[in-house]
Amino acid sequence: MMVLPVRVVHSVGVKGVDDVSYQIITDATADMDWSLWDVCVIPMEVRLNNLTYVHGPNGTIGIPDFYKAQQAGAETGTSQISPYEFNRVFEKYLSQGMDILYLGFSSGMSGTFQNSCLTVDELMKQYPERRIICVDTLAASVMEGYLVYEAARKKAEGIALEDLADWVKALRKQAYCRFVVDDLNTLKRGGRISSANAFVGTTLQIKPILKINEKGCLQMIDKKRGRKKSINDLLNYYHTNSMKSIGGVVVIGHGNCLEDAETLRDAIQEQYPNTKVIVTHVGPVIGAHTGAGMLSIAFC
């Protein structure tokens, strides 16, 4: 999908002291245990063959059910959050006298963030006294979830709206994230690899290792042969870059492969017992493009 240039809205409305409350809002691509934060999550649509479901709070499809259907051969797809839906969600809080910090899905992978910016332009005409700050996380899945989780923790400490927006922009440059994909056929259907590469890779048990680059786009950086070696790569990645995160938070995401996620979690906690490790699902919006068996890690 070609994504048009996005204007990041740094701050809209009246500046000044934070004498009113504000709400953090994100989207359903932020993979995390949503019960751990006080954040509004905007649901997103996913498709299985010709049927459309909703993933998010009060969604219409369970994560295991999604992966079961996908592994059975169902065609999968996703849709952006529309300007109309952003308007509906944002206005709910603006009408209550609250400001908004939206932490959005990477503009390098979707036009969803651009839609949020278009919505802000219209809403500020109706609520000129309010502030809406939209931050492009340049992230997805557990990396986006990690950034939002840390932002929610920081908000609970009493940080002001604009200061938190700047803090998240700084954190996104410091965060580490890596993915291993198990299902090459899903990457093939999404046009990310050729049919020939998918066939050879599947035959030889080649597992692509990916990261999210500085532009917020997925980038293949390595390949490992075999599932065990690919999981060890995530563990070694943490060992190499974990100096700042010891005693901090690590998020592990899995595409319906809980046992592998727990293996990685246990290996980290064995060597870094003071580190908090959160294991969470990779939801259908991301899973539609990465397939079952995806394993990922995010930390700072």
Automatic annotation (TrEMBL):
GO MF term (any one): lipid binding
UniProt xrefs under PROSITE patterns: DEGV
Family annotation (SUPFAM superfamilies): DAK1/DegV-like
Alphabetical keyword list: Lipid-binding
Matching Pfam families: DegV
InterPro entries associated with the record: DegV, DegV_C, DegV_domain_contain
NCBIfam families xrefs: DegV (TIGR00762)
PANTHER family, per database record: DEGV DOMAIN-CONTAINING PROTEIN DR_1986-RELATED, FATTY ACID-BINDING PROTEIN TM_1468
Name of the featured protein: Protein DegV
Record lineage: unclassified sequences, metagenomes, ecological metagenomes
Gene name linked to the record: degV_9
